Amino acid sequence: IEAALMRCIKARNEKQNLAELSQSIDEVMDKALANGLEWSHWMLRDDAGMVRNQIVNMLNYADAEGRLDISYLHQIHRAFLEGCASACHGRKIDPSLIIGEEMSYEDVKKSFETKEKLVATVEHCLAKFEELSGQRDGAQTGTERRIKDVLRYLGENMYKMISRREAAKYVFLSEDYFSRAFRKETGMGYKEYVLKTKMEYAAKLLVNTELSITVIASKVGYGNYNNFTQMFRKVMDMTPTEYRKLHEARTDI
Q1: The 3-state secondary structure of the chain, one letter per residue
Q2: What Rg value do the Cα atoms of the chain yield, rounded?
Q3: Cα–Cα distance for residue pair 213/243, rounded to 1 Å
Q4: What is the rounded distance in angstroms from the CA atom of residue 20 to the CA atom of residue 26?
């Protein structure tokens, strides 16, 4: 009987804790929704990517909790548009311009009908806002600066294998948004860019130093010699040994 009572007390406490946690989360979510102007401040700080990430995270969380109804979508929709209007006013941009020719006013007006429509509208409007802000003063957008931060980070940590997820986390962007922004800025996918830059750096080491190929492999994040050789051949169309010999021959000439 004592054991059964203890189980009941534990279950009641856990249920109470969960209820309190749920209430706290609801309060945070409601506060965020009521404070759409905060998103405008982020946009004016050239951090439109942060706005997009928070909205997507809120929608995904609400969806997972079974709270993603039309009322919730409409709340976020309204707060976002208010934030956009405020940011446009701050940058002296006509709010109608962030809709652009790709979407109609009716599309934007009804985009709270589904999560997918709302996310698409958010991404479109934020991209147009960044574009118009850049055209106005020639400044880099927040997303552009973040991608440049990642490129610098990759260059400074060539000896590491930094995944796309880690890179996105480094600049506080969602992985999907980061992938699209990275390709837009560099013209290639993240994995393709990392492989290319690592092998180009390895090629310089092969030509300009007498380091062993194993050491060079470790300097670009490869602990496995065979794997490094395979990747080098994929990019340079020859093995590291062949590449070094070829350039030694050219130096002798």
Answers
A1: CHHHHHHHHHHHHHHHHHHHHHHHHHHHHHHHHHCCHHHHHHHHCCCHHHHHHHHHHHHHHHHHCCCCCHHHHHHHHHHHHHHHHHHHHHCCCCHHHHCCCCCCHHHHHCHHHCHHHHHHHHHHHHHHHHHHHHHHHCCCCHHHHHHHHHHHHHHHCCCCCCCHHHHHHHCCCCHHHHHHHHHHHHCCCHHHHHHHHHHHHHHHHHHHCCCCHHHHHHHCCCCCHHHHHHHHHHHHCCCHHHHHHHHHHHHHC
A2: 25
A3: 11
A4: 10
- Structure-token match 């995270």, residue found: 57
- Residue 16 phi/psi, 5-degree rounding, is -65, -40
Sequential pLDDT tens for the chain (253 residues): 666 666 766 666 665 555 544 444 444 444 444 467 788 988 888 888 888 888 888 888 888 889 889 999 999 999 999 999 999 999 899 888 888 777 788 888 889 999 999 988 998 898 888 888 875 445 566 678 889 889 999 999 999 999 999 998 888 777 888 898 899 999 999 999 999 999 999 999 999 999 999 999 999 999 999 999 999 999 999 999 999 999 886 655 4
Please report, for residues 37, 48, 96, 121, 132, the alpha-carbon distance to residue 54 in angstroms, rounded to integers and kept in the order given. 13, 10, 23, 14, 22
pTM: 0.55
Sequence-separated (6 or more) residues with CB below 8 Å from residue 102: 124
